[in-house]
Design a protein that fits this description.
With 334 residues, the chain is α/β, with parallel strands linked by helices. It folds into 2 domains: 2-125 and 301-331, Quinone Oxidoreductase, Chain A, domain 1; 127-277, Rossmann fold (3-Layer(aba) Sandwich), CATH 3.40.50.720. It contains 11 helices and 16 strands. It has helices spanning 41-48, 119-123, 126-139, 156-167, 181-187, 216-222, 241-247, 251-260, 262-270, 284-295, 312-320, and strands at 2-6, 15-19, 29-39, 61-62, 67-74, 86-89, 102-106, 110-112, 147-150, 171-176, 191-194, 207-212, 226-234, 274-277, 303-308, 327-331. The strands form 3 sheets. Strands 3, 5, 6, 7, 8, 15 and 16 form a 7-stranded mixed β-sheet that branches. The longest helix is centred in the middle third of the chain and has 14 residues, at 126-139. The protein is globular and about 55 Å long. The two termini are 15 Å apart. One of its GO terms (molecular function) is oxidoreductase activity. Residues 10-330 form the Enoyl reductase (ER) domain. It comes from Rugamonas apoptosis. Pfam families: ADH_N (PF08240), ADH_zinc_N_2 (PF13602). InterPro entries: ADH-like_N, ER, GroES-like_sf, NAD(P)-bd_dom_sf, Quin_OxRdtase/zeta-crystal_CS, YIM1/Zinc_Alcohol_DH_Fams.
């Protein structure tokens, strides 16, 4: 099968087209013909080698963390799917590889594709959807009337999280550029902060939850936005000891993560708030819940641009520019 792989960590030149063997199918696996995949900042971090301490993939590696497609074959123990079913998924982190014509995915990571979406639209949803769900529903338990700040509201995670937070009854603030103000307001943002002109931490106060997608100083300033007992959840900040323990990392990696996150954890304790790092996991049950919100018209996908399969490397480079509004999708099957 045709796939896009890296033989070494590096920039865009490290990505190449290759002929790879069709995936082997385990008893609980589903073989999916991929029709569309989407690009995430996670793909860029994997490509550069920035996550090799916690995700030690073997090279050559097929990139890609999102898919929508059609079931081709199922393993002997699979009961929930049959050939011809349309599905979408974020594969488990140890079995990524959606920039390819086929992939074997464990049954529990799959969900039926939302009926109202095209393959390209559906492929844009799994990773950002699961990230938003696990941050706002599972970890923060956002409730009616709470105040939530979502950084980078025009990005893939941000554009989904705004819609999800509003569906949960939250009052939502977001940061973005002035050019995207009207657009994020249409998604449901109640307060829009132009990050180029205004320090959000000087105007937002007494928030219950912050979802940080930026890291760095934006993460540190986010502590001041929260009221005592609030939750600061980051997908870009330093991993914390709880994540290190849950990931099963070696002791020296756990020590390193503890040191990296010491500053933000100390600051959070001083302000009586809780800091958590989130690395989203695959979950087919949650994807079914997200599909219900999509088909019910509560959440809609935001697709910035669709690239042909032959332009996979260019799609990665485009995401790296930071100009994408929503998700960038690769159309694998014409």
């Amino acid at each position: 099968m045709k796939a896009y792989v890296i033989d070494r960590y590096g920039a865009s030149s490290a990505v190449r087209a290759a002929e790879m063997p069709e995936p082997e199918l385990g008893g609980s696996d589903v073989l999916v013909e991929i029709h569309a995949a989407s690009v995430n900042p996670l793909d860029l971090k994997i490509r550069s080698g920035g996550l090799k301490m916690v995700l030690p993939y073997r090279l050559p590696l097929i990139l890609g963390n999102d898919l929508a497609g059609v079931v081709v074959r199922v393993g002997a123990r699979v009961r929930g799917y049959k050939p011809g079913d349309q599905v979408y998924a974020r594969p488990p982190q140890e079995r990524i590889g959606t920039f390819a014509e086929y992939i074997a995915v464990s049954e529990d990571a799959l969900a039926p594709k939302p009926h109202t979406l095209s393959m390209e639209e559906a492929a844009a949803m799994p990773l950002v959807g699961l990230t938003g769900w696990q941050a706002l529903v599972e970890m923060a338990n956002v409730r009616q009337g709470q105040k939530v700040l979502i950084h980078a509201g025009s990005g893939g995670v941000g554009s989904f999280a705004i819609q999800l937070a509003k569906s949960l009854g939250a009052y939502v603030a977001t940061t973005t550029s002035a050019a995207n103000r009207a657009w994020v307001q249409q998604l449901g943002a109640d307060v829009v902060i132009d990050y180029k002109q205004t320090d959000f931490s000087g105007v937002l106060h007494d928030y219950d939850v912050v979802l940080d997608t930026q890291g760095g100083e934006a993460l540190m300033r986010s502590v001041r936005v929260l009221k005592p007992g609030g939750r600061l959840i980051s997908i870009s900040g330093p991993p914390d000891p709880d994540f290190a323990k849950a990931s099963g990392a070696p002791w020296f990696v756990r020590v390193a993560m503890g040191l990296l996150s010491y500053r933000i954890r100390k600051l959070a304790r001083r302000h009586q708030v809780r800091y958590s790092f989130l690395f989203m996991r695959a979950d087919g049950t949650q994807l079914r819940s997200i599909a219900g919100l999509i088909d019910g018209g509560v959440i809609r996908p935001v697709v910035d641009k669709v690239f042909p399969f032959a332009s996979t490397a260019e799609a990665l480079d485009y995401v790296q520019t930071g100009r994408a509004k929503g998700k960038v999708v690769i159309k694998v099957k014409s």
